[in-house]
Amino acid sequence: MTDPYIAKILCADVYDVATETPLTPAPLLSERLGCDVHLKREDLQPIFSFKCRGAYNKMVSLSDEQRARGVVAASAGNHAQGVALAAQRLGVDATIVMPITTPAIKVDAVKRRGANVVLMGDAFDQASEFASGLVAERGATYLHPFDDSEVIAGQGTVGVEITQQITTPADYVFIPCGGGGLLSGMAVFLKHAWPGVKVIGVEPADAACALAARQKGERVTLDEVGLFADGCAVARVGAETHRLIEQYVDDIITATTDEMCAAVKDIFDDTRAIAEPAGALAIAGMKTYLAANNVGNATVIAVLSGANTNFDRLRYISERTDIGERREAILSVTIPEEPGAFRAFCRAIGKRNITEFNYRSSDETSARVFVGVTVRPQTDDVSELTSRLLDHGYSAVDLTDNEMAKLHVRYMIGGKTTACDGIERIFRVEFPERPGALLMFLDALGADFNISLFHYRNHGAAYGRILVGVTGIGSNDRRLDNTLDSIGFRYWEETQNPAYDAYLKPLEL
Question: Looking at residue 409, what is its pLDDT?
C-alpha cells in the first residue's frame, strides 16, 4: 500500500519560492572515498537552505482566515528565513522566535524580509515554548519547523528532485537530521522510488535526539544539546517525524564537531561553497560511514542542506579541520630544559610538518611543549609517533580528542616564568611557509642560544610566523642579531613590547 505522503509530496506547492537545486558531482570526495559521490545543493536556495520548501507548502495551505490572523514560528534560523520568505510572498504577518544563540547572519536575514523577530532562550525548544504562548495570546497559526505533515511533504520534494536527476538509483543517501522534517520527508519518497536504497540520517553527536529515540523505542528529551550545528540543535525529535523515521530510515549515525569542520573544507574543495556546520553534517557522516563499513564502488548522495554561517565562525572551523580529518595530532611532550633541546625534539619527530608549537620555560630541568603535528589519516600514525618519541627519551600525551586542550589550553600556555637565565630578548620572525623552513631556522640558532619561549602556528598562509624568546646572552651581545641577519628571514625585536611586559616577561627581570 502506497504511503499517503507520496501524493502529498508530489502535490507539494514549493516552487513559488524554492528552486530545483542541482545534484553536483564531488570528484575529490569520490576519489578519496572510492565511490561516486554527489551533493544535493540545497545551499543554493534563495534563503541558502532547504527550509523554504516546507515553510511555504505549509503557509500556502492555510485558509484566508488563518493567514489574516498571522503566523508564529520558532526556529534556530533557517526555518525562520523560510517562514519570512513565504510570509513576504503571501502578504502574511509573521512573528518568529529565535534562540539568542542563533548566528547573526540568520537573524538579520529574517528581519530583512519583514518578519518580526523575538530572541528567546538558548536553543530551539525554549524558543518553541515561548512561541506557543504567543500563539495562544494572538490566535495566530503556529508553523512548526518539522513536526507537521505539510512541512514534511514540502521537504520531501528534495527527494523527488534527486530521483529525477540521476539515471540509476543511488546505493546510499545521507540526510542531516535535527527535528527530522527533511529526513522523514525524503526517506518516505526515496524508499518509494528506490526500494533498495539505504537512507542514512546524520545527527550532531551532541544533539542526537532521533538516535536516542530509536535506541529507547520512544521519543526522549535530551538534557542538553550542542549549539555548534545550530540548525540541528533540537532536544526532541518530532512525533510524526519519529514515526516516519522509524519506518523508512535504515540507520542513524552521528558526526562530531571536528568531523563537521573537516566536511566544510571537503565541500569547499569540491564546490568552492562554504557550508554551515549543519549543512555539512550529512557529508561528515557519509565519510565516517563509508570508511567504517568499507563501502566502495557505490553511488552515494549527501544533502548539503545550508550555507548560513557567520563569517567569524570560519576561523574556528579552519582551526578544527585537520583534527576532524585526523590529519593533525595534538601532543603534550616533556623535553629537557637545555640549549638545543627544541631542535633535537624536531629531529626526533622526523619528516613531519609541525603545525603548532607552544612553549614557555618553567623550571631549570624540563619543559612541557604543546605541539601540533601532521599525521596520516586512518592509520596508527599517532601511536607510531608517540612510540618514536618514547624511544628518544621523551614522554608524550595525545591531546587530539581533549576538548579543553583544543579550546583553551593551547592559547593559555605561557606566563611569567622565573626560570630565565639573565636577560631575555624577544623576536617576531616571518618566513616563507615551506617544508623545512622551521627546522632551518632552528639549525641556524644551533646550540649557542637558549630558547625560553616559542610560539608558531601554521595557518596555511604564504608566510609562517614565530615568536621566540632567547636567554643566556648579554644586552650588548650581537651574536644573536648577526645570526638572525644571516638566516635571511624578516624579524623584529619585541623585547620592549607592552604586551610582552604585561603577560610574558620573566618575574625577576
Answer: 65
Q: Tell me which residues are annotated as active site.
A: 51, 305
pLDDT of residue 488 exceeding 90, the answer is no
- Tell me, yes or no, whether 484 lies in a domain: yes
Question: How big is the CA angle at 290 (ends 286 and 293), to the nearest 5 degrees?
Answer: 135
Greater confidence (308 vs 300) lies with 300
Residues 245, 383, single domain; the answer is no
- Taking phi first (over 0 means left), then psi (-120 to 50 degrees means alpha), and beta for anything else, what does residue 488 get? left
Least confident of 27-31, 170-174, 178-182, 477-481: 477-481
Name residue, grid cell 616571518.
Answer: 430
Task: Provide the CATH number for the domain around residue 430.
Answer: 3.40.1020.10
N-terminal to C-terminal alpha carbon distance within the chain: 83
Same domain, 161 and 305: yes
DSSP state of 10: H
How many domains would you assign to the chain? Answer: 3
Strand (E) or helix (H) holding 78: helix 78-90
pLDDT grade, residue 472 (50/70/90)? confident
Residue range(s) defining the domain that contains residue 73: 52-143
